[in-house]
Amino acid sequence: MPNLKSAAKAMRGSARKRVYNIRTKDKFKSAVKVVRKALETGNAEEAQKALSTAFAALDKAAKKHVIKKNTASRRKSRLAKAVNKAKTSK
User: Fold this and answer.
1) At residue 4, what are phi and psi to the nearest 5 degrees?
2) pTM for the full model?
């Protein structure tokens, strides 16, 4: 337990932030899973539609500093590459 009043306040704040961070992480992870699932089933058009949702979720997570900017960029790049590969292989 915190000894100082300011440490107790910081602990409460970090607990609140943790909830928001987990919620944001869950959103982008589930959005990415939707794209990956569509790619596994071979549905390139559905993956393309879900891609924009995943991009938005990743951008929001990076904006809120839940993940780093380059991590979001890397994940977006790999998703786009996979979707484009699925579209051209048809």
Assistant:
1) -100, 155
2) 0.86
Are 54 and 80 contacting, i.e. CB atoms less than 8 angstroms apart?
A: no
As given in the structure block, the two tokens for residue 75 are 């994940």
* 61, burial (CB in 10 Å: exposed 0-12, middle 13-18, buried 19+): buried
Domain 5-88 class, CATH top level: mainly alpha
Task: Report d(CA 81, CA 6) in Å as an integer.
Answer: 47
Report pLDDT digits (tens) over 28-65.
999 999 999 999 998 999 999 999 999 999 999 999 99
CA 42, 33, 46, 61 torsion-angle sign: negative
Q: How many Å apart are CA 73 and CA 57, to the nearest integer?
A: 12
Cβ neighbours of residue 31 closer than 8 Å, sequence gap 6 or more:
50, 53, 54, 56, 57, 58
Are the C-beta atoms of residues 78 and 86 closer than 8 Å to each other? no
Domain boundaries, the chain: 5-88
